[in-house]
Each structure stands twice: as C-alpha cells, then as structure tokens.
Design a protein that fits this description.
mainly beta, 18-stranded antiparallel sheet, single chain, 3 domains, Porin, 43% strand, elongated, Immunoglobulin-like, 9 helices
C-alpha cells in the first residue's frame, strides 16, 4: 500500500524543468506487410547505445549525446540505417526488408533451436566462468559507489497542466519540454544522491557499505520516501539465475534455465575497447512470463559480459509498471578483469500499459570507481552497526558533492533542488502533500502531534455495537528518541468508554535500549493469535470487524499494564524483558471465563467458582530477523518492504500472589517464518508456531487456536474455524502458502490477458489439554483440542482488478463438530506489483 500511495505522490506533484536527453527517438519497426517486428535491435549509429523493440515493435531511445542516424537490425531482415534530421524524433515508421543469404553468422527466427545454436555454446561458457569473472576473482575488494535516483513525470499534456489541482503551482511548468509532434513532456520531480565506500570479502561472503553522503531534493528526512526508493531498487547481480524487482522474480537471460525461457541468436561480433566480443540477442519463448528482451556483448576469451541491455516484455504479469529497462557496462582492468562500472535502470510506472497513458519514470544510475583488491579486513569489520546514526552524511556541503559526484548533474537535474525548495513554500502544495501523507501513514499531522490512525475510527462487535475511536501520538520527526501514544473509544451498545496509553523512550541509541510501558482497558477478542506479546495498544481485527460470519460475542474485558526494556544486541537480534499485570473478565452474558478455585466435591457439589482472572507475569523474549532492512534510527523505524526470515521465542512466568495474581505457570512460545523465492515457480512462505504451558490455568490464559469469523483473510488464522472452537495448552501449527505469480494462468490462452495470480496453501494444527486444566474449567465451554491433527487447505485468485484477492478454503476433517464451516470464502484488498 505504501509503495502505491507514494507513487501517487509522484503522479500528483508535477514540478521540474527540461528533460535531460539531447537525442530522443521513438517509433515502430514494421515489415513490408506493415506487421510489427518484435525484438528488433535499434542502436544509435557509431555507439553501443541501443534498445530492443517490444512485442508490438515499438521502441523509445534517448541519449545525452547527439547522434544523426539509427541502425535497425532484426533476425531474418536486412539491416537498415535511418537518418535523424532533428534531435527529437517521434513516431518513426521503420520498414525492414527480407534479408539476403548470409554466410558469416547463422540466423534464427521465431523460436530458436536448442541444438546446434552457437549462441547457446557461448552461453554455456558464460556459466562456466561466471564465478571467475569480475570481483569474484579476488579474495577481497574495495570501491567507491555513487547512486542517483530520479523520478520524472511523462506524457504530460497541456490539459493536465491547466488542471485546477495545480492552482498556485503553475510556475513549475515554465520550462517544460513539450514535443511539437506528440505533445509528450518529461518533468523531473525528484532526485536522491548517495555516495558509499564499499568493502567485500569473497571468502567470508561479507559485504559492507558505508554511507558517506546523501542528498535528497525537497523531502529531506522523509523516511517513507527513502524506504520506498530503497525497496524499488534493490541490488542485483546480472549473473544470478533470477533477478528480483518489485517483489517479483525475473529469469535472468544469463540463467542456467534461460534456455527453456528465452530464444538466443548470435547476431554479430566486433571489437569493443580493444576486446573481441560476440553480440547475442535474446527474447522470450512465451508471453506473460517474467522475462526480458535485449542483447549483450560478451568477450571471446574470458566470456565476461562487456555490456548488456534488456527490457521487461510488455506482457509480463506485473502491475503498475509499464516498462523496465536495464543497462550495465563493464570495463576491462589488467587486460582480463571485467568490472561493473555503470548500472542504469529505468522503470515506467503507470496505471495501465496503454501506449499513451500518463506515468512516472523512475531512474537509478549507479557508478563504481577506484577499485582496490586483496586488502584484507578483520571479520569484525563487516559487523553491521545496530543503529547507524551520522547526521553529517545528510548535511554535506556543496563542495563535498562537487568532489564526490562521479558525473556532474546537468542543468535540469541541478534545478530540481531549487525548484522543490521553492515549491514547499506554496500552500497548495503543502495541502496535497499532507493528503498523500495521511493516506500513507494513517495519521493526520499537526505540530508535534499526529491524529490517528484514522482507519481505526469505526468498528463493530456484538458487545459494543458501533464503536468509535479517537487517538494520536507525539511526533517531532521520524527519528524521535521517544514517543507517546493514546486513544479512547466508546461503544454505543454497552455505553462504556475504553482507553489505552503507552510510551517508549530510547535511552541508548547505539544499542537501541528502549524502555516502554502503558495501560489499556478495552474489549478484546483474546485467542485471535497464538504467539502473543504484551503490546498495550495492540488490538485484533477480530474485535472490531464490521461484518462477521456467525456470532462474535466471545469477547473479554481486559485491563492490561506492562513495563519492559529491550535492546538490539546485534543487528536485527532483539532481547526484551518485561513485567505485566492483567485482569480478564467476560464482556458478554453469553460467554464465560469462569473457573473453579475449589473443585466440586461431596461436601461442596458446586465447588467455588471465580469469574475474573487476575494475573501477574514476567517474560523474556528473543527476536531475530536476518536480512531485515530498516530506515531511520528513532524509537520507531520504518521497514524496507523486502522478505526476511523471522524467528521469535518467548518465555513467560506466572507470578502467583504478586498483586493477588491467581496462577503460577511457565509458558514457552516459538514462532518461525521463512519466505522462499523459488525462481520462476514463485514465492513460498512457511510459518511454524509451537508452544506449551506448564501448570494449571483457566480458559483466559489458554492457547486458543485462532479462528477467523470475518469475511477477510487474516494472517496466521484458520479460515474454517470459529473462535474458541479448539482450545489447547500445548500446540504446534504449520502453515504453508505459495504464490505462483500468475505463471500457471499464463499458460492458459483465454486467461492470459487477465493477469490473475494463483495461490495455494495448507494449514494444520495439533494440540492437547492436560487433565488438570480440564478439571478447573467452569466456563460451560466444552474443551476440544485437535489431538488428531486438524487441517484445512485453500486456493486463491489474486490481482483481480489489480487490487482484490479471493481465497477459497476447505475444511479437511472434524466435519461433524457443531457449526463446523466446511467451506469458506475470504477476501482481501491490497496494491501489489
């Protein structure tokens, strides 16, 4: 959601200067019968700057240099040179004729053969040498890295400029570069520059990047935009079998599985920088798969890539992105070592893939220089800092950037900084920016205070009826060392006010030592998740869903107070210890948490029953999230939206007698989640939860297997279970979900254009209850534990209208239980690439 909302920010804010390129060409390549020629090579004459036309034969090519001609080539057609009379040339129609017989190079058309194809012989040599080329030849390496990220609006016409949305901001269009032929305009709207010192050790398999400077136009300190940019442009290695962009796994043209995915054509050979190289063109064998089209030049002796250009095919099953173009250049060092020196990536973000749709270009240029090799560093050098804090890197003077930019900004790029500084003084711009910020964060910003989250304002359950909630948090900036949050809510049926307040204070920034505490009095659906924490302001969606399947009256009045201290002992490894006190009591006349304090006997057949649970508890927990990426260094940080493993262990101790606490027990809970990207087969998520309570406890402290009585998909719940259908004091659950990413539907012709995504999954749980815990149950709720493994399975269709997903779930067993749901349909909304 955050990514799409931030994209909308770039769509809305049109402010910049002239487009950067000196030579621009767009058009279509046709054969003599006026049929488009897909995957034709289009190159500026006398250069290695080119592109491959898309499935419809269309292309767009630009360069900061001046060129006077194009050379267009395609397998099976004669080469054609096209003169360029102007610097900007649009809507070219380039017609190629049939090729004459050639003796020098074997040409393939359509689907190429997997046998007797010289291009594949070269490809196999690349596989053999890929770990012996470039940086991999050395034990250690060092280099400097410069990264520039830009966003440019495109296809902006005069009607758009006159839109009332931009009232008061018209000055930003004063220098728009508009084509007299097409009316297309290109407006830079954002630029971010970063400089790094990079260190790597191939023996230790460690890489460290030290940020030495960062400069962002107009949005300094906006952590969400930084997070968004880092998420969009993750690092990749062109030699890897699969390349990850926008949370999708694309098959690399250099992949060992590429033979089954791509057609390869050995097209040409030539000297490049005094090195003899082969030119190989590649294009996909099938539509709708996550593949590229393009070409690469490879050396004839080292079989190292000298240059590669590739673009995502238009039919690829990816949302909001009309085009992706990648270009990498390698330079030769010491006569045989090919090192990456330039990496350029451009993405065209748009609401649809129509040729004339408006969109935003996102461009990342990464340059490398000053390579040094085999300078060994101790292993501790590569240890990541827990909380990187160096404000100086964000406040570098102009002299720093003049010295450390690998290439100078052109006039228009330099003007972005001044333009945005001016724009932020415009009242209308501030209003638009605040609106997008509210949608992204869920909070309405005031001075030093945020109201929200606004999406929690309304709720409904059978006890409270309609529920209204208001709240807020302190907010001085994204890197606040402390934060206080509070809310109050009112139910119109029970006529009661509820509230919650909590605070966090980071007392040691280096190791992220945080003290927190708070109190909450509210109505809650306990048992909505297995692995729980003592988060004071946490609240389950199950307690306030506007629509539910069946009764959701099994709610509890909870009064929870806690204090805790945590520290990040090493990067992404967090240790927390805390104390909590809670009281639990049924909030509904139709539901009971009663338990026996004295069991029924001959002398007292009714026993002694208690309705309220009073419990003090101490806990210590360990949380490890390798490869998690964060933004900022304050008490609350933003996450970069990339997959990472998650391992969580919690030990709890019931403190009987402390503040009249009722029970003594020990509890252990373990949670593990592992995302796995399986190349072209999609992405799998495996989640395992297990736990056991040692001691005698009542229903309010039991481990309830989480059901889902809403109409929406809720993570880590069982779609076909009701609340409290299974109760345990010892449990193990396994959940497996797999996203095929549309790869199956892409093979079905009539479904191909829908771009739907396929999901499958299975959930299972095993659990037991001790005799002692059964004996003290006076709630009237029958204790059922899944001593025979309960399981259910599901299949889903996602990307419906690009925002909706439907999941169909079937119950595997326990079909004869009262009110058992044998089949369920759940939905969810979300914006995904």
């Amino acid at each position: 959601m955050k990514r799409i909302i931030l994209l909308s920010l770039f769509f809305v804010f049109a402010f910049a200067a002239i487009a950067t390129a000196q030579t621009k060409v767009s058009g279509i390549v046709l054969d003599k019968s006026n049929q488009p020629i897909p995957f034709a090579n289009v190159v500026f004459k006398g250069s290695n700057t080119g592109i491959v036309s898309n499935e419809d034969g269309r292309f767009y090519l630009e360069s900061p240099n001046t060129y006077t001609a194009l050379v267009v080539t395609s397998a099976g057609f004669s080469d054609k040179e096209v003169p360029l009379e102007k610097a900007v040339n649009y809507n070219f129609k380039i017609v190629l004729g049939e090729a004459e017989a050639l003796n020098e190079v074997v040409i393939y058309t359509g689907k190429t053969s997997k046998k007797n194809n010289p291009a594949l012989d070269i490809l196999r040599k690349i596989w053999e040498r890929k770990r012996k080329n470039g940086l991999y030849q050395f034990n250690q390496y060092q280099m400097q890295k410069y990264e520039k990220v830009e966003f440019d609006m495109n296809t902006i016409d005069s009607a758009f400029m006159k839109n009332k949305l931009f009232k008061g901001m018209e000055f930003v269009f004063n220098h728009v570069d508009t084509s007299d032929v097409t009316g297309k305009t290109y407006l830079p709207i954002f630029i971010n520059e970063s400089v790094y010192d990079v260190y790597g050790d191939n023996k230790l398999k460690k890489v460290k990047e030290n940020l030495t400077g960062n400069k962002m136009s107009g949005f300094n300190g906006n952590q969400q935009i930084l997070s968004f940019v880092k998420d969009l442009y993750s690092d990749y290695n062109i030699y890897d079998n699969h390349l990850k962009f926008f949370d999708k796994s694309f098959t690399s043209p250099l992949s060992k599985t590429g033979i089954d995915v791509y057609n390869y054509v050995l097209k040409d050979s030539a000297y490049i920088d005094k090195k003899w190289c082969f030119n190989i063109v590649f294009y996909p064998r099938r539509k709708n798969e996550l593949t590229f089209k393009g070409d690469f030049w490879v050396n004839d002796t080292t079989f190292a890539i000298k240059k590669i250009n590739m673009g995502v095919t238009k039919s690829a099953n990816i949302n909001w992105v009309k085009d992706i173009y990648i270009e990498q250049e390698f330079e030769v060092e010491n006569d045989s070592v090919f090192l990456l020196t330039r990496d350029y990536m451009m993405s065209d973000f748009a609401l649809n893939k129509k040729e004339k749709s408006k969109g935003v270009y996102g461009k990342r240029t990464t340059l490398y220089r000053n390579h040094k090799f085999n300078i060994q560093k101790p292993e501790k050098f590569y240890k990541e800092e827990v909380n990187f804090i160096d404000n100086a890197v964000y406040e570098r003077p102009p002299e720093f950037w003049e010295e450390n930019r690998f290439e100078k900004l052109n006039k228009d790029e330099a003007g972005i900084y001044k333009m945005l500084d001016t724009l932020q003084t415009v009242k209308r711009f501030k209003q638009l920016y605040n609106l997008v910020s509210i949608l992204g964060s869920g909070y309405i910003e005031f001075k030093n205070f945020d109201y929200g989250p606004i999406f929690s304002t309304f709720g409904y359950n059978e006890v409270e009826g309609l529920r209204l909630r208001v709240g807020g948090r302190t907010y001085f900036g994204p890197n606040d060392p402390w934060r206080i949050q509070a809310y109050t809510a009112y139910g119109f049926d029970d006529n009661k006010f509820k509230y919650g307040v909590s605070g966090k204070w980071m007392v040691d920034k280096k190791n992220r030592v945080i003290i927190s505490g708070g109190n909450r009095r509210d109505i809650e659906q306990i048992g909505a998740s297995l692995t729980t924490t003592n988060d004071v302001l946490g609240r389950s969606f199950a307690s306030s869903a506007l629509f539910t399947t069946g009764s959701n009256g099994k709610l509890t009045n909870i009064n929870l107070s806690n204090v805790s201290i945590e520290m990040e002992a090493k990067k992404n490894f967090i240790i927390q210890a805390g104390l909590s006190y809670r009281t639990l009591e049924s909030a509904s006349k139709t539901f009971s948490l009663d338990y026996y304090t004295t069991l029924p006997s001959a002398a007292n057949p009714a026993g002694v029953v208690q309705s309220m649970v009073k419990q003090s508890e101490a806990n210590i927990q360990f949380e490890y999230m390798p490869n998690r990426k964060t933004i900022g260094y304050g008490v609350e940080r933003d996450l970069v939206d990339s997959p990472f493993s998650h391992f969580f262990v919690n030990f709890s101790y019931g403190l009987k007698g402390v503040f009249d606490s009722d029970f003594a027990y020990e509890k252990i809970q373990v949670f593990y989640r592992q995302p796995i990207i399986i190349g072209p087969l999609g992405r799998t998520n495996i989640t395992i939860e297990t736990g056991k309570t040692f001691g005698t406890i009542p229903l309010g402290l039991m481990s309830v297997i989480p059901g889902n009585q809403t109409y929406f998909t809720i993570e880590n719940t069982f779609s076909n279970l009701n609340f409290y259908e299974f109760v345990t004091d010892q449990y193990t659950t396994l959940q497996w979900n797999h996203d095929f990413g549309g790869r199956l539907f892409a093979r079905i012709p009539f479904m191909r254009k829908l771009n739907w995504r396929e999901f499958i999954g299975i959930r299972a749980v095993h659990g037991t209850i001790s005799d002692a815990n059964r004996a003290i149950n006076a709630s009237g709720l029958p204790y059922n534990a899944p001593e025979k493994v309960y399981w259910e399975y599901n299949a889903g269709i996602g990307n419906i209208f690009k925002v909706f997903r439907l999941d169909f779930s079937w119950r595997g067993n326990y079909l004869d239980m009262p009110d058992a749901h044998k089949f369920a349909i759940k939905g969810s909304f979300g914006f995904y690439f």
